[in-house]
Amino acid sequence: MVVHLLKLCVGVDEIDQLARWQRDRLKRMKAAGEKPRLRHVTRHAPKRCEEILDGGSLYWVIKGFVRVRQRIVAIEAVENDKGEQKCGLYLDRKMVRTELQPRRPHQGWRYLEPSLAPSDLPAGATVDDIPPRLAAELKDLGLL
Q: How far apart are CA 40 and CA 63, in angstroms?
């Protein structure tokens, strides 16, 4: 059974900014002669790795809302520049925009059951395409 991970995207204000950061990281890796792979390093490894690798994604929370996901393609032990053991979540380069789903701040990552995950937006859709009633409520709250 699939399970996903939920993570705050700290320091990022919009999906395009995350995409730029990832593209820049891949370019630096290639220039350094490394195999360009998107990796997010976390302190702890998930215990439910098999379920995550069965089609799970990392859902990014940006500015208080889940907005985008990336499929997790591998989970490996990695060593940081201080020699400490960490966990590397390797991500598919493709970003899939999701329906907006409000989320409170939290530390680290959280498991996200598929039944609680936001749906993907149709190809080509943007946040501007959210239902008018929801957009009005979010604007009233100062969130859009």
A: 19
Q: Degrees (nearest 5) of the Cα angle 136, 141, 144?
A: 65
Q: What is the pTM of this model?
A: 0.85
8 Å CB contact between 16 and 121: no
pLDDT for 74-87, tens place per residue?
A: 999 998 888 899 99
Q: What is the DSSP letter of 115?
A: G
State the residue range of the domain holding 57: 4-140
Summarised one tens digit per residue, pLDDT across range 11-23 is: 999 999 999 999 9
Report d(CA 30, CA 44) in Å as an integer: 27
CA dihedral 52, 57, 58, 63 (to 10 degrees): -140
Alpha-carbon distances, residue 93 vs 60, 65, 72, 141 (angstroms): 14, 21, 10, 33
Q: How far apart are CA 70 and CA 58, in angstroms?
A: 5
- Torsion angle, CA of 46/68/40/36, rounded to 10 degrees? 130
Domains held by the chain: number: 1
Q: What is the DSSP letter of 127?
A: G
